[in-house]
Amino acid sequence: MVYVTRKLKDNGDRYFGPYSDVKSTRETLDIILRIFPVRKTRQVLPLPRPRRPCLNFDMGRCLGPCQGNIPVEDYKVIIDQVIQFLEGRKESLVSDLNIKMSNASERLDFEKAARYRDMLQRIQNFREKQTVVSLEGGDEDVIGFAKKTRRRTSDSFRN
Questions:
Q1: Is residue 114 part of a domain?
Q2: Are residues 101 and 57 part of one domain?
C-alpha cells in the first residue's frame, strides 16, 4: 500500500520525500495510483476470506490482491516499479512502458496502448514538475510505503 504521512516511524516501511507541500504530495500519490494498478484499500492482507471486487478493480486500476486475483510475485513486481518511480529511476520504467505500448499497438489493442501512452505522459509531466531534496526529518510531507502487509495505515496532515 502506498500512503501519505507526516509521521516517520522506524518500522521497516520505506519513505520518500519530503515534498514541498501537502498538495504536491497528494498529486504525487494520485499520479502513482493512476500509473500503477496498486490497491487503494486499507484492509490488512491477507484477508480471512476474499472480498467482492472494488470499483477500482472493475475499472482496471487495481489487480485485486484483496481477492487473491494476482500472485504475490507478480504484485511485488508492480510494487518494485512504484519504488523505482519514487526513487527517481524512471528511465527503465519509461523503456518498459514504451515496449508494452508498441506490443499492444501491434496486437491492435489500441485501448491498452493508449493507457500506456497516458502513463508515459503522466510520468513525463511528473518528471518536469518534481524536485527532490534530502530528507532531514522534522515536520515534512512524505509518501510512505508499507513494507509489511499486516499493518493498518492512515493519512495524517498538520498545517
A1: yes
A2: no
